[in-house]
Amino acid sequence: MKDAKNTIKKALGLGPDYVKVEDKNRFYYMLQQMQSNRWKITLVVLFLFFFIIAGINSAVFFDVEIKENWKELLLILLGAFVGNLNKVVDYWFNSEDRDKMLIQKVDEEDGQSLSNVTSSSTVE
């Protein structure tokens, strides 16, 4: 039972508050934590969006009578989650500048400068 609690806490990110990390690895550890948190947020948004769509589809499939005010509420909720889904897609696919900055920071911590943030690789 205790192992199950620890597994759930670890999966939800509710583990220990402080983790001792060597100075040279602290930025890398912070990036890992940030990425882990972003994955969790992405999964929550995608799950909720799927849940809303599945609920609407099941109501249509089973010919459930929905009052007009509930229809408006469902459509507002769906519109809000479409905006959240758009932000998730933007994060994962439109973050080139942020990625360049993170790579440069990691290179600086390693003592090597393998990347150049000022160079632009976009084609117009």
Description:
The chain is mainly α and 124 residues long. It has a domain at 21-93. It is built from four helices and no strands. The longest helix has 36 residues, at 26-61. It is elongated. The N and C termini lie far apart (58 Å). The model has no long low-confidence stretch (mean pLDDT 75).
Features:
mainly alpha, 4 helices, elongated
List the helices and strands and how they pair.
Elements: H1 2-12, H2 26-61, H3 68-93, H4 96-110
Helix pairs in contact: 2-3
Give the gist of this structure.
With 124 residues, this protein is an all-alpha fold. It has a domain at 21-93. It is built from four helices and no strands.
Q: Give the strand content.
A: under 5%
Number of helices in the DSSP assignment: 4
Poorly predicted segments: none
Provide the structure class: mainly alpha
Helix content: over 70%
How many whole angstroms does the radius of gyration measure? 21 Å
H and E order:
HHHH
